[in-house]
Amino acid sequence: MSDSEELTEFGSIVERIEKGEVPIKNIERELICPICKELFTHPLILPCQHSVCHKCVKELLMLNHDDSFSTDAGSECSNPGSPRSRVPSPSMERLDRLVRSGSVSSPGWRRSSVTPRVTTFPCPGCQHDIDLGERGISMLFRNFTLESIVERYRQAARAAMAIMCNMCKPPVQEATKSCMDCKASYCNECFKLHHPWGTPKAQHEYVGPTTNFRPKVLMCPEHEMEKVNMYCEVCRRPVCHLCKLGGSHANHKVTSMSSAYKILKEKLSKSIHYLISKEDQVRTQITELEVLIRETEENGQLAERRANEHFEELFEILQEKKTEMLRSIAQSRNRRMDKLRSQVEEYQGMLENSGLVGYAQEVLKETDQSCFVQTAKQLHVRVQKATESLKTFQAAASPSFDEFALDTSKEECLLKDLSFGGVPDPPMIDLSQSRVYNEGLIHWRLPEDSLPTDHHVLEYRKEAAEDEEKSPWQTTDRVFGSSAVVCDLDSNCRYAFRVRSCRNTIYSPYSPAVSFHTPPAPVFGFLFNEKCGFSAERLILSKRRDSVESVAGMAFLLAAERVQTGSYICLDYIIGDTGISHGRHYWAFRVEPSSYLVKVGVASDSKLIEWFHNPRDTSSPRYDHDSGHDSGSEDTCYELSQPFTLITMGMGKLFIPKASVSAAAGDHGNRVLPLPQRIGVCLDYDAGHVFFYDADTMRCLYERQVDCSGTMYPAFGLMGGGAVHLEEFITAKRLSYM
Questions:
Q1: What is the number of domains present in the chain?
Q2: Where is the B30.2/SPRY domain (predicted)?
Q3: 3-state secondary structure of 547
Q4: Which of 184, 212, 229, 450 could bond 151 through an S-S bridge, CB–CB 3.0 to 4.6 Å?
C-alpha cells in the first residue's frame, strides 16, 4: 500500500470514529462502572485516569451523611443502567456547586459536613491509593466525553423510545432538538416559541434530541471561576493558568490545551488505526483463544472426573475398612456377651432353691445310701468348684474395648496434605522489592493461580569474568515465606540469584536468574538530622526522619522579596545525623522526579558551619563554587580539592559538573543525564574521593576529589519544591524478620 492510500484509509477511519459510525453496542464493557457494575452516572476522572460514578465515590468516602443533601443526592435513578434513567439529577449538580463554592447558608451546616471524613480509597481499577485531599470530590473532573458516549449507548438501547418535549402541554409531542444553554428538549413549535428571532435565546446552541446536557467550557476544580487552558504532563490532567502560576502545578511541565489535544488525538487515532489494521491478526488470536477456552473446559472437566474417581476409590477403601472393623468389634462383643451370660447363669445356680444349690438340697433328701453315694460324689465336685469360684471371683470377659481404639491422626494429616501431584510453577523474583547491598534481601512471588507450596529454596553465586571458572551455586536454608536475606556478600561484585518452590517433595523449575551488583563499599546507615541547619519553615521532615520535602510556600516568596534581578535563592540544606571520619562508605536514596532543584553529595563540618551560620548574599549566583551558575567563573577553581562536593538534579534530569566533561565533549547534551530511579554515593574518606552511582546498575556517573580534613556528612540541598527519600537499608529490614 502506498503512502497516499494509507493516509486516505487512515483519514476515513478517523472520520468514522469521530462521526460515531463505529457500532456502539460493542463497547458496553468500557461503559460499566467498576464499583456498581452499571452504566456510568456522572463519571469522575480519578488521578490514575480511571473513571468512577460520582455516587460511587461518595459511597466509598461518606461514613455518615444523614443531612438533607444526602437525601436529595440520593434521588438519582436507582438503576442508572436502565434506559429510563435519562434525566440528570438536579440535586447532583446542586451538590457539586455547593461543594465547590462552600457557600451554604443553612443553619448548622458546615463545609466539613459535605467534605468526606475519609479522603483516601483504593482505585477499583488499578488498586492504587487515591488521596483526594481536603477538597475531596470537588477536586475531580467530570468525564464529559464518557458521559456523552454512555448517553449515545443508552439512546441506541432505547431506540424505540422517543425523547419528548419538556415544554409541551398534553398531549406531549416528540422532541426534535435540544438546547444546550437551556438544558431542555423541544418540539419544533415549542422551540420557536421559546427561542424567538431577534432575542438572545435565538443565539443558543442546539443539537439533536438528547438528555446529556454538559457545560460548554470545562472549569478548573481548584479555581472555580477559571477555565482550563493547559495540560499538566506530570499529573496528566487539564489545569488553569492559576494552577501553573502558584498552585500545585507550579513546578510541573505544562503544554497548551490545543497542543495536548492535537498530540493525544493523533496518538489515539494512530493506536486505533493500528488495531483496525491488525483486524485479521486479532481475529486469528480470538480463534486461538476460543480453542484454548474449549480445551480448558474439556481438560478441566477431565481433571474433575479423574479427581472424582480417585475420591470414589478412597471412599470405597474407607467403606470396606469401616465394614471390616465394625464386624470385628461386633464379633468380639457377642463372644464376650455369651461368656458373661453363661457366668451369670452359673452364679444364679448358687442361690437357694435354685440351680445347683436346689438340686443339692433335693439330693440330701435321698435315704438310700447307695443311690446317694452314686449321685453325691459328682455333685460334691461341682459344689466345691462353685465354692472356689465364689472365693476367687473373676469376670469371664472384660468390658473394655481399648484394643479396638482407632488412631487416624496420621491418615488425617495425609488427607489434609492431599494435593495434586503436578510440578509446582516456578516463582518469579520481584526486582522492585529486592535490594542488594553488603547483604541481600530477595523477594519473589508465585503466579496468581498457583497452588500453595511447602517451602522455597534460594540459591546465589558470584558471577565470574568470561575467562574465569564459574563459582558453584550456594543454597540458603528452607524459606517458608516469600523473601530471604543473604549475608556476607563481597563489595563491588555481581551476584546472580534464583529460587524454586517445593510441594510434596516435588521441586519446581528454577526461576530465571537475576543479577545484582553490590555497592563498592559497606552500607552507611543514617537518618536526616533535624537539629543542624534544618529549616522547618521550608522543609517537611517525615516522622521516621528518612524523607524530606521542600515546600515552595509563602516563606519561599518572602525570602525572595529583596531579589530584584536574577532568580537565585539560597538552598535549604539538611545533613545526615552521622558523620564519617575514616574508611569507605556507601548510601543510596531516591529523588522525586518532579523535584525542581536538589543538590546531593558530602560536606565537611567546617563547610557546614559556613553554610548554616555565616551570612551570604542570596541574590548573587556566585556566592558558592557549586551554585549551578554557568558563567564559567567557578570553573577556574573547580578542580581544586574542596571540603564539599554536590551535584545538581531536578526536573527529571541529573547534571554533571562541567569540569568533569572533556573539552571535546563538553557540550550541554553530554552533561545532562536522565535522573536514575535510585542514586548511590560512595565516600572514600582515606583516599579523599567521592563517587556518584546509578544505584540500580551501579554505573559510576561522576567522581571527584574532596578534602576530607574534618568529619564528612551526607549533605542535601533543596529549593523550589522537591523531595528526597533515603533507602530503607537491608539491616533495618532484617529486624522485622527476627
A1: 4
A2: 506-734
A3: strand
A4: 212
